[in-house]
């Protein structure tokens, strides 16, 4: 499949899966925009916007790129750039509105999504695929005239060896070291 055909197939999958009729209570609208250009960071194959009503209203922007090849570190770097550029562009917009006396009565989150037949693992990709809240990896396979898309996770990276390093790095934040308590409790058994 070519890039254009893949983006169309991904759009069809998103429309049929992520915008499936369900609880109509809070979701106000769902929009899909192909080939969206982010100032200073290039384009994404698709941009989706989900608007949930509430107090305040919540908007989720998803940036999507689909590849016919394996996702590599450079693809992650490019999507990170697009996420940050979109957030900066939105911050500029809200700053301009604030100078004119308007305050946002909503919350906005921005997420990046990379879709490919496979993902080349790296320490960054592993940690993002398990604990990242703004970055998602998906694998696609051909299904009939379209594609099937599934979340992609690799083996969970071990953070135990980094515990001391993290503890020292975050010393200005209040932390309770529960591992020491668990070790003492285990020793008493």
List keywords for this structure.
single chain, 189 residues, alpha/beta, six-stranded mixed beta sheet
Order of helices and strands: HEEEHEHEEHH
* C-alpha termini separation: 60 Å
- Percent in helix: 25-40%
Q: What is Rg?
A: 20 Å
Task: Please tell me the total number of domains.
Answer: 1
Shape: globular
For the largest beta-sheet, the strand count, sense and barrel status come to: 6 strands, mixed
Structural class: alpha/beta
Mean pLDDT reading: 84
- Assign the CATH topology: Trna Endonuclease, Chain: A, domain 1
Give the total of beta strands: 6
Describe the protein in words:
Strands 1-2-3-4-5-6 form a six-stranded mixed sheet. The termini are far apart. 18% of the residues are buried. A hairpin with a 3-residue loop joins strand 1 and strand 2 (42-52). It contains five helices and six strands, in the order αβββαβαββαα. It has a single domain, classed as Trna Endonuclease, Chain: A, domain 1, CATH 3.40.1350. By secondary structure, the protein is of the alpha/beta class. The mean pLDDT is 84.
SSE layout:
Blueprint lengths: L2 H15 L9 E12 L3 E11 L4 E10 L6 H27 L6 E11 L6 H9 L3 E9 L2 E6 L11 H7 L8 H11 L1
Parallel strand pairs: 3-4, 4-5
Antiparallel strand pairs: 1-2, 2-3, 5-6
Short description:
The chain has five helices and six strands.
